[in-house]
């Protein structure tokens, strides 16, 4: 197997993906839709955070959610139970979401327009970082039980995102070693423009601030 | 980009990898070494579990550890601080460990033989499932804070491993929704031969049982 041939194919795939993502992003802007890609490890609390965000945003805006998983409909069911439009995207074992998958999933909304579209990406802190999904902002979650020492271990993800959302802050008392100041510092060294939020979906901590940031980003883009 | 060409290349890579893994496994057996591949999400507690296991095993056996990360030396330093031989394997952004990486890392031990060799794989519940690393047993960790509903979301990993090690059981009181019985049932439906352990490295729960299973597996293979 020639290494150079593989690298070349991968670059072709990524270039095609980015072109498609740029078109999709423009199309959404014409529809007035602001699109956020939510990435994290498995179990960092993506679905739970989205459910909390929905409660903040739904009063004054329409929302659509694309739920990606290797298989299963567990998460899209939770979103639908909350009365929000959701489409399940099954990657069939693939470790990330590509633009072609987003386009197909979006078609399943049947032409509906939303103020906010969210993609809950595959639970994977590595591979999704490489693939532009057509979102206007990319955010990553890091849950307190995972530990604060992840910046040096998973630098590509920390480098590409617009926001780091620390989740499950109610676990801080059980994690006296979790060094929030070190996390903030390390993350900002790698990515100086990073917006950082500390949240807990259970207690509601930080959810309003996060929602306000998303609303402001949409305003800046569309108005 | 032709899909068939990519699939073909991937199959070639996986076949080459499996052949190399089989040779490596045989070589270790001749040296009396039992090799365990430890896989999990980021922050599931792989390093902490290994540190607890070391304490159980080191009294009567020699141990070597290969610590894989995209970048950084955080984890191998922790292992070395415990007085155990460790080699850092940096994948340089690659989302899984392949056989060629294991071979190169193993050479860094400089010809030492161990009774037990452990690989702490990349924190990723998806991609490492596909790559045989030459281990005799493959185990996965799932931490309580991640939630119990992961079998349907990450089936390839649950299907390939020999053991599911539930970690951080001290978080159960904070997670009344964590349904251990459902997790056990779903995991065994997908993988009937799965050995399941409930552990907590902090309190020591389940660590001895896990160590005894590893010792018994080595005996069965080598004696």
Which radius of gyration of chain A do the C-alpha atoms yield? 17 Å
Largest interface: A-B, 40 and 39 residues
Oligomer: homodimer
How many extended strands of chain A? 7
Helix content of chain A: 40-55%
The major beta sheet of chain A can be summarized as: 7 strands, parallel
Written as H for each helix and E for each strand, in order along the chain, the element string of chain A is HEHEHEHEEHEHEH
Dominant shape of chain A: globular
* Beta fraction of chain A: 15-25%
Structure at a glance:
Chain A is of the alpha/beta class and 223 residues long. In chain A, 40% of the residues lie in helices and 20% in strands.
Question: Explain this structure to me?
Answer:
The structure is a homodimer of 223-residue chains. Chain A is α/β, with parallel strands linked by helices and 223 residues long. Chain A is 40% helix and 20% strand. The first copy, chain A, is built from seven helices and seven strands. Chain A has helices spanning 3-30, 46-57, 74-81, 99-107, 155-160, 180-190, 207-222, and strands spanning 34-40, 63-69, 85-90, 116-123, 137-143, 163-167, 195-198. The first copy, chain A, has a seven-stranded parallel sheet, with helices on both faces. In chain A, strand 2 (63-69), helix 3 and strand 3 (85-90) form a beta-alpha-beta unit. In chain A, helix 2 (46-57) packs across helix 7. The longest helix of chain A is centred in the first third of the chain and has 28 residues, at 3-30. The A-B interface holds A 1, 5-6, 9, 12-13, 16, 41-44, 69-72, 74-75, 93, 95, 122-127, 143, 145-147, 149-150, 152-156, 168, 170-171, 174 and B 1, 5-6, 9, 12-13, 16, 41-44, 69-72, 74, 93, 95, 122-127, 143, 145-147, 149-150, 152-156, 168, 170-171, 174.
């Amino acid at each position: 197997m020639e290494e150079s041939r593989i690298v070349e194919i991968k670059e072709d795939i990524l270039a095609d993906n980015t072109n498609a993502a740029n078109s999709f992003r423009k199309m959404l802007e014409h529809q007035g839709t602001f699109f956020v890609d939510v990435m994290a490890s498995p179990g960092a609390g993506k679905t739970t955070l989205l459910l909390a965000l929905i409660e903040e945003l739904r009063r004054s805006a329409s929302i659509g959610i694309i739920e990606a998983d290797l298989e299963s409909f567990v998460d899209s069911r939770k979103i639908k139970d909350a009365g929000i439009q959701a489409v399940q995207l099954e990657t069939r074992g693939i470790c990330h979401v590509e633009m072609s998958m987003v386009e197909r999933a979006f078609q399943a909304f049947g032409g509906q327009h939303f103020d906010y579209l969210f993609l809950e990406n595959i639970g994977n802190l590595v591979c999704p970082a490489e693939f532009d999904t057509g979102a206007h902002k990319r955010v990553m979650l890091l849950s307190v039980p995972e530990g604060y020492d992840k910046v040096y271990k998973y630098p590509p993800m920390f480098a590409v995102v617009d926001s780091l959302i620390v989740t499950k802050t109610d676990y801080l008392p059980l994690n006296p070693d979790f060094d929030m100041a070190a996390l903030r510092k390390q993350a900002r060294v790698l990515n100086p423009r990073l917006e950082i939020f500390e949240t807990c979906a259970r207690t509601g901590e930080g959810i309003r601030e996060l929602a306000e940031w998303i609303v402001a980003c949409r305003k800046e883009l569309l108005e």
